[in-house]
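Try this one yourself first.
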């Protein structure tokens, strides 16, 4: 992340069998990326992420597929050399072993689900 403090808030998994509204369990922090882990297992994890305008998740090469769903706002996602804009309600799977960058031209919230099994 460029010139930003990343605030990683490790939380207990969301209470099972209890209704919650995903977009309300994370807040925006000025000039920051906030990540809350909802479920963390050896086979993968689910996180909710808020990214303030002007911030980004710097380019990375993920070894696993990553399902992204925008739950508020609009995100710019670069996968290899393909630039995509996703809006609230839209989703994409970032394929394993592809370079990707996620930019916030405006602030947004997303769910990231990484599956670590099935690559044997």
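Now uncover the answer:
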């Amino acid at each position: 992340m460029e010139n930003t403090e990343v605030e990683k808030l490790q939380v207990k998994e969301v209470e099972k069998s209890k209704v919650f509204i995903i977009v309300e369990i994370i807040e925006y922090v000025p000039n920051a990326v906030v990540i809350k882990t909802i479920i963390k297992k050896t086979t993968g994890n689910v996180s909710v992420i808020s990214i303030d305008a002007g911030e980004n998740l710097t380019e990375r090469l993920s070894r696993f597929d990553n399902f992204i769903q925008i739950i508020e706002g609009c995100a710019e996602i670069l996968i290899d050399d393909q630039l995509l804009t996703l809006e609230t309600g839209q989703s994409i799977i970032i394929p394993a072993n592809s370079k990707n960058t996620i930019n916030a031209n405006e602030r947004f919230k997303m769910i990231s689900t990484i599956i670590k099994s099935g690559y044997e």
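Discussion: Strands lie at 5-9, 32-41, 44-51, 56-61, 66-72, 74-79, 82-87, 91-94, 99-103, 108-115. The CA atoms of residues 22 and 48 lie 8 Å apart.
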